[in-house]
Design brief:
3-stranded mixed beta sheet; 17 helices; Serine Threonine Protein Phosphatase 5, Tetratricopeptide repeat; Zincin-like; mainly alpha
């Protein structure tokens, strides 16, 4: 490889590392240097540009750059994998993502690790397309050593549960947690599967562990003062509840609205979701009991964790309220539109 190629690769590698470190200013500087060295249409320049756009939330631009890179027939498997993952992330380009992965898997110059990563992502896409049988078949073809990985086990659990094999899904998740006990996402998935299987005590045990790990991993935030709580409550009442149609609003209008930083262990032990930033406290609707809503709680820290911009507060609160109403009142078909 000549010196120019060595130089562009070094610059791109520096930019990719900056993206991984979430240092987008440094990544942009590397991209500009790479464009000067090799032009905007160099396959690795397109790859870096796509990852930067993705990190900035510009999914459509990112997908465009990454698809251009794939079209240049690169021998770098990571470009195919990143392109497919980006396409799948939007939820609207699953067919294109699948095509990219199948192109990668059809090559004979791809190393075993990249093949396994491609198959894992392809299985997730087939699951999203409700083809659990093919998803399981793809997962079974992954190398045995990879099948001990928590990510593999978590994905397999999702597919097994969707395929009606709940006990096998629970076993896979328990194996994943043994391999990585400090991953809160695994405990969260376990809690959800246990709850769907009717094991409420086991679900709450898992969710308490989620709360503990999430709290340990949370960044430092300023304590909430009463004025901040009052402002958030007022925003919820004046900009969210006013958009709820009256027949639906009647179900929740009399409940007091509380603002707190995070869920408490006692609340999670009572059954609330430790990752829900709008939550209802009371008795959810069941086959035997009518619902009883005691209060609405807004979790400030969980809401802030989801925010990219201050303008997102009201839309997020609205979505959180809608999700909680569907779950608490068993109103799965509930749809509401903001003004």
């Amino acid at each position: 490889m000549n010196r120019a190629a060595d130089s562009i690769d070094a610059v791109i590698d520096r930019g990719l590392q900056a993206v991984e470190n979430e240092d987008l200013e440094r990544a942009e500087a590397a991209l500009e240097e790479a464009q000067r060295l090799a032009g905007e249409n160099h396959v690795r320049v397109l790859h870096l540009g796509g990852l930067i756009a993705w990190s900035e939330g510009r999914l459509e631009n990112a997908a465009g750059y990454l698809q251009q890179a794939v079209d240049l027939d690169s021998n770098r498997a990571e470009i195919y994998l990143d392109c497919a993952e980006c396409l799948a992330a939007s939820g609207n380009d699953l067919q294109e993502a699948e095509a990219v992965l199948r192109t990668l898997l059809a090559r004979d110059d791809v190393d075993a690790e990249a093949v396994d990563q491609g198959k894992l992502l392809l299985a997730q896409i087939r699951l999203d397309d409700d083809d659990t049988d093919e998803a399981l078949e793809i997962l079974s073809s992954i190398s045995p050593e990879r099948q001990e990985d928590p990510v593999y086990l978590s994905t397999r659990a999702l597919v097994l549960e969707a395929n009606g094999q709940t006990e096998a899904a629970l076993t896979a998740l328990e194996q994943a947690i043994v391999a990585d006990p400090g991953d809160p996402d695994l405990h969260y998935q376990l809690g959800l599967v246990r709850e769907s299987n009717g094991d409420l005590e086991g679900a709450r045990t898992a969710m308490l562990r989620v709360l503990e790990l999430d709290t340990d991993n949370a960044g430092e935030r300023e304590p909430m003062d009463p004025r901040e709580a009052d402002a958030l409550r007022a925003q919820f009442e004046e900009e969210v509840l006013t958009e709820v149609p009256e027949p639906v609003l009647d179900r929740i209008a009399s409940a007091p609205i509380i603002v707190q930083e995070r869920p408490t262990a006692a609340q999670v032990a009572d059954g609330i979701n430790p990752r829900t930033y709008v939550t209802f406290l009371g008795q959810p609707k069941t086959d035997e009991q009518e619902p009883r809503l005691d209060r609405i709680i807004i979790m400030r820290d969980l809401l802030l964790d989801e925010l990219d911009d201050d303008d997102d507060v009201v839309p997020l609160l609205f979505v959180g309220l809608l999700d909680e109403m569907r779950a608490f009142f068993r109103m799965e078909g509930l749809q509401m539109a903001t003004a």
